Amino acid sequence: MVKIIAYFSLFVATGVSLISSPGWPHWRGPNFNGSATGSLEYPIHFSKKKNVKWVYRTPGPSASTPVVHNDLIYLSSIDQEGGGDPTESRLLAICLNRMTGKVVWFDRVGSGYRPGDNHGLEHQLDSKSNYASPSPSVGKKEVVFFFGNGDLVCYEKDGSRRWSRNIQEDYGDFCFQWTFSASPTILGDSVYIPILQRDEQVHGRGKENADSFILKIGLADGRTIWKKIRFSNARKESRESFASIIPYKNQLLVAGGDVLTAHSIEDGEELWRWGTWNTGHKQEWWRLVPSPVLGDGKVMVCAPKGQPVYAIDVTDNSPKLSWTSVGNRFLTSDVPTPLFHQGYFYILSDLKKCLAKVDPQNGEVLWQIMLPGNYKWRSSPSGAGGMIYIMNHNAHVLVVSTQDGSILNSAKMGDDYDDLTRSSIVLVEGVAYIRTNKILYCIEE
Fold first, then answer.
1. Where are the beta strands (DSSP E) in 290-395?
2. Percentage of the chain surpassing pLDDT 90?
3. Collapsed DSSP state (helix, strand, coil) of residue 171
4. Ramachandran bin of 234, using left for φ above 0, alpha for ψ from -120 to 50, beta for the remaining angles
5. Range 9-443 classified under CATH 2.130.10.10
6. Helix (H) or strand (E) holding 199
């Protein structure tokens, strides 16, 4: 670990005052649903130059969402200019001062682990992703970074490494067609990692009859507390899931392999399952990307590639279908995880380029708006203060009113031909943090 001064940052003076708060500890925020805590006002009118308190020039692009705890921001990145072996030197864990945007510490994480004996990096990454796609997760005294090559690293808040390990090295090479990117989930003194993968080799990676599984790992020492096999009847790519684990009471909600399951936090035992959206499991190419989202006693799961969304009633731990969007071809989400904010679901369809406000009890669409531009809207929506923040691959940001779907602001935060922006917008204590291909913006009116 190397501590440095603001080597990668461009600093603009700011007077942001910080108050101890839940922050944004997980890629889906303090409530695991994309919604900020509290009733503060958040910025509406901003651009690349307007209401920008500071900017941090990132070492490289990443789909990961920054996380925030008190006066610190943590983000994963690659070092695009660092040179050397990409698996060895280019994965970075970065900590910024939230008041100034200056680097507090950073660490070169890459362990150099390569799946198999002779597979180069070109066989492990798709063209739009990199190993820094998973977001970090913050606990009370630590922060955990996970990377698509299997590196899992736990740090003290001062940047000292507590422990590190590589999940592929420990449990076998991943069997994913795409770059693995599920984010870790910290609950109490443990971190949870889902590995929902194929049971056969893909592009020469992995092994035949590979298991999908969930890990509970102790934050104190990095040891596995339990590993639970997660069974599925799905076939080929339909077994692959990039969704993160979402907590519900004393359960872990896991989506993938054509089903939604709940597992005990204590021992990983499966408590119930619901499914499927893939009748007869005939479709072999339905990998899952959106995480489940909980709201008003309903768990929403999104079937892939233009298929419906499903609201599952879990109020009595006996899951049953409450409603589905069958028949509404616009109410679907292939990549973005829906938002639950102030009593309603907000579903962003990247395939149909629309955003909809939906009643969680019956699936009624209260409003639906079409989205501009030629780029896909795939960053998962965030909500605060009665406003929805969404962003497309070109880092074009919209601020949308929850009341009627009117667009309150349209800001092009990326460069003209950017097409790698995947991060969600982070909302903490009246401040918005927007990560583009090259820059992390701190926005405050």
1. 293-295, 298-302, 309-313, 320-324, 339-341, 344-349, 354-358, 365-370, 382-384, 387-391
2. 80
3. helix
4. beta
5. yes
6. none
Distance in Å from the first CA to the final CA of the chain: 35
Type of residue at 110: G
Share of the chain above pLDDT 70, in %: 90
Compute the distance between CA of residue 180 and CA of residue 178 in angstroms, rounded to an integer: 6
Two structure tokens written together for 265: 């936090």
Tokens 């460069």 locate to 415
* Contact indicator for 212, 196 with CB cutoff of 8 Å: yes
CA distance readout (Å), 356 to 43, 195, 303, 346, 347: 22, 31, 17, 6, 5
Compute CA 239 distance to the chain's CA centroid, rounded to the nearest angstrom.
19
Which pLDDT tens digit goes with each residue over 48-67?
Answer: 999 999 999 999 889 999 99
What span, in angstroms and rounded, lies between the C-alpha atoms of 110 and 164? 11
Phi, psi values for residue 69, rounded to 5°? -140, 120
Q: Describe the strand order of the beta sheet including 142-146 as a list of residue ranges.
A: 137-138, 142-146, 151-156, 161-166
Q: Are 43 and 445 in contact (CB under 8 A)?
A: yes
61: tokens are: 């692009």
- Residue 83's pLDDT band (cuts 50, 70, 90): low
Alpha helices for 69-164 (secondary structure H):
86-89
CA distance 29 to 385: 14
Q: CB-based burial of residue 86 (10 Å sphere; 0-12 exposed, 13-18 middle, 19+ buried)? A: buried
Span 267-295, pLDDT tens digits: 999 999 999 999 988 999 999 999 999 99
| Confidence bin at 81 (pLDDT 50/70/90) | confident
Checking if the pLDDT of 125 tops 60, the result is no
Reported pTM: 0.92
Write the DSSP symbol of residue 35: B
CA atoms of 17 and 317, how far apart (whole Å)? 43
CA distance 391 to 434: 9
Q: If you write DSSP's letter for every residue of 207-240 in order, what string do you get?
A: -TTPPPEEEEEETTT--EEEEEE------GGGG-
Tokens of 114: 């390569």
